[in-house]
Design a protein that fits this description.
alpha/beta, Rossmann fold, 5 helices, about 45% helix
Length: about 150
Amino acid sequence: MYKRILVAIDGSHTSVLALKEAIHLAKTMGGRLQLVNVVADLRGSWFTGGYIAPRDVGKSVVTAGADALERAVGTAAVAGVKTDMKLIENTTPGRSIPEAIVEQADAWHADLIVVGTHGRSGLSHILLGSVAEGVVRASSKPVLLVRGK
């Protein structure tokens, strides 16, 4: 039984699909959700020294993450599922977004992690990586991957 389901939310279509699947599971099993958005640390990124201040980009990314979480919480509330949310600002040097998701799942004692996957392959997968794949590799908990359509 999955009573505590952590869902990675990034505002994408695939994370919305993952949320819908997690809501279905939570309703079926009488569980609750924790919705998580991890904001990457932009210090030292390619923005540094450019025309855009990293501080300004960071604020925008945090705002976008918070907005995505608020929309997701609203969706879960309409469905009648108990939900809380957590915005994680990933400032730990060397910690990847998948590692931050898995650490939060462990701290919250999640029974299941639900992540949407974009289904990239080839060069785009090599260049962009995969948060979903990273979560699967790092987690000792079950992970449900929901593929975009």
